[in-house]
Amino acid sequence: MAETMEAEAAAEREAINSVICQLADPDGNSLGAALYLPENAGPKELNQVVNKLLSNEERLPYAFYISDEELVVQLGAYLEKNKVSVEKVLTIVYQPQAVFRIRPVTRCSATIAGHTEAVLSVAFSPDGRQLASGSGDTTVRLWDLNTQTPLFTLQGHKNWVLSVAWSPDGKHLVSGSKAGELICWDPQTGKPLGNPLTGHKKWITGISWEPVHLSAPCRRFVSSSKDGDARIWDVTTRKCLICLSGHTLAITCVKWGGDGVIYTGSQDCTIKVWETSQGKLIRELKGHGHWVNSLALSTEYVLRSGAFDHTGKQYSSPEEMKKVALERYNKMRGNAPERLVSGSDDFTMFLWEPAVSKHPKTRMTGHQQLVNHVYFSPDGQWIASASFDKSVKLWNGTTGKFVAAFRGHVGPVYQISWSADSRLLLSGSKDSTLKVWDIRTKKLKQDLPGHADEVFAVDWSPDGEKVASGGKDRVLKLWMG
């Protein structure tokens, strides 16, 4: 009799000290059956469990979330702090983390003068080795990042250069101006490839290349304009292949998606989805009550960087590039459809899965002023938004749920960019500063003053090594870890 009581007491003690947990991926798919885990299990032990259940040959790092909050303590401590019943099954979402870590940028390594008017756009090449800047002085400049000196000044535009975009294979650079012209350049020589491409009647608002996993070498890109049209161009024949018309007001942004469709956001409050062989309209995404300002894709980082990653590997043939880019894209996308987020003058954002539905997955509210820029983290796990309300907000990239607000800027936030490991976020503001935010702690990691005036453009190199910024003070700044 005494033995059974003792056995029961022991069993009870066991039960008290364990928690019923259900592990799930970010899309809500369960990983195995529910498990009893000891209360003293924390992220380290959960990492071992997930690696084992997924039969990973190499151990990969994961972060764990319970109701959108990262678990950084032992389960018992979490339950106590959040007054959660031990009887309930605790759903723990595991998120893969980048195996590599990017050093936060902490200092300005170079201030490069040269432009004679404001710097309006900056963009690193897909391999992170070159940097292009477009300016109100009508030139594009290419910078050598090893020596931090100007490589070429590209002359040919007659008006402000509003937009610059590298092809994802790194072979071409296209710039678009306030006069509506586009020029293709050879980044190796700094020479234009033929005459300017004309057709747009008003200024260029965006340029996006066809992903390299769909076509290599890269030939086609799309431009959007204030004239309400988007145009698909072939860089080899230098002709406009298709004009996408149908918007009733200016197109403000354009993205060429990984499935091969083009998304355009417009001041007519709609987002249109186009196929690219004949330029037919496939879908219209409606819901915004005011201008659409910014679009971002969950796969954007791999689309932009193609076959290049943080390791700096170079490729000898377009075929090899296409193959590696496709592997990277498929791995990033997983089984889920590509997601799109739109930010608007109506202070809201929408999260869409355009391949699945013309209705938004969720409406994201909280900003007190227009949303200027939206951007998915490289791993697709987060969405960041920059607003004229001086804040940057962080949202769950799968559900669109609000996660945190980053406050510290004292002026509108113009542009944001992510570190390649999705752990840090950069913002540039009218207040003349750049700020780096830590996604895990949800706090300011680094304040980067130094510009003498508004910061219009920021970019974090795809290899994670450097940050570039430009603005009203006409200088380009490079920042390092």
From TrEMBL:
The keyword Transcription regulation does not apply. Gene3D superfamilies: YVTN repeat-like/Quinoprotein amine dehydrogenase. It is found in: Nucleus, Nucleolus. Transmembrane segments: none annotated. Keywords: Nucleus, Repeat, WD repeat. Residues 19-79 form the NLE domain. PROSITE patterns: WD_REPEATS_1, WD_REPEATS_2, WD_REPEATS_REGION. One of its GO terms (cellular component) is nucleolus. It comes from the Eukaryota. WD repeats lie at residues 112-153, 154-195, 197-243, 244-284, 364-405, 406-447, 448-481. InterPro entries: NLE, WD40/YVTN_repeat-like_dom_sf, WD40_G-protein_beta-like, WD40_PAC1, WD40_repeat_CS, WD40_repeat_dom_sf, WD40_rpt. Guanine nucleotide-binding proteins (G proteins) are involved as a modulator or transducer in various transmembrane signaling systems. The beta and gamma chains are required for the GTPase activity, for replacement of GDP by GTP, and for G protein-effector interaction. Belongs to the NLE1/RSA4 family. PANTHER family: NOTCHLESS PROTEIN HOMOLOG 1, WD40 REPEAT PROTEIN. G proteins are composed of 3 units, alpha, beta and gamma. This is Notchless protein homolog. It comes from Nicotiana tabacum (Common tobacco). The gene is LOC107829966.
